Amino acid sequence: MFKKLLASIGVGGARVDTQLDNPRLYPGELLRGRVLVHGGSADQDIEKIELVLMVEAEQESGDHEARGALPLGAVRVAERFTIRAGESRELPFQINLPAETPINALAHYGRPLPVWIHTDLAIDAARDASDRDLLEILPPPPVAALLHAFEQLGWTLASTDVEVGTARVGNVASTLGCYQEFELRPRGGNFRIQEIELTFIPRGSDTHVLIEVDARFGGDSYIALVMGPDFARRDWATELRQRLPI
Fold it and tell me: What InterPro entries does UniProt report for this protein, alphabetically (predicted)?
């Protein structure tokens, strides 16, 4: 009885460990792994095990922005079961990452963008145990191509963050309750433009891009473009030079 009481308050209780087979992957790809559950000193009822895709996002609050963990989606790995004292269980899983999963495997000088899998082990009449596993989300080819084109024109990636809300490019809107912004700065400075911000929204075989140009004098301007399946055959540096005052 005493062991059960201790387990119910988290002492000697069940432990969870999530192991990822491919933590470095692209948005839209399949994340594979397993959840290992280790029983404690007494039998315990597990209400559920869920894996939650999380990102650190910014949200405006009054005159300032607050950072916090934002869930992007959850997958149930196990329903209610009993883990016996000293028992171990292995629960394999596969998760399709959303195509709009924020990208963080990029070289820049800004604050790192955490994207991770949060494992929630809900224990009956006990505190939840949790596990956090970081992901490296690679830039899809259209994103990499446009960032490279800007680099050719003297604009480097300074930082990237995720904002709570919805972004729109024409009649296409983001769907995760947040959107990612890429902030570019000119090497050596630019008299007319202070910075450029990019937002990418993938939709099917196309990638919709919103380009915000922050002028030093005057208001911001916006340009929308679509990168289709033929994006790799186009000279994006030339197109950007023709469409933007850079």
Answer: Spore_0_M
Q: What is the pLDDT of residues 185-239, one digit of tens each?
A: 998 877 688 899 999 999 999 999 999 998 877 778 999 999 999 999 999 999 9
Q: Average pLDDT of 87-105?
A: 97
28-38 pLDDT per residue, tens? 999 999 999 99
- What is the rounded (10 degree) CA torsion for 237, 105, 35, 71? -80
Say what the pTM is: 0.89
Q: Are 118 and 51 in contact (CB under 8 A)?
A: yes
Q: Quick one: three-class SS letters along 176-213? A: CCEEEEEEEEECCCCCCEEEEEEEEEEECCEEEEEEEE
Q: Where are the beta strands (DSSP E) in 62-109?
A: 64-78, 81-83, 88-96
CA gap 68, 25 in Å, rounded: 23
CA–CA dist 97, 92 (Å, integer)? 16
- Amino acid at site 113: L
Residue 143 amino acid letter: V
Q: What is the mean pLDDT of the chain?
A: 89
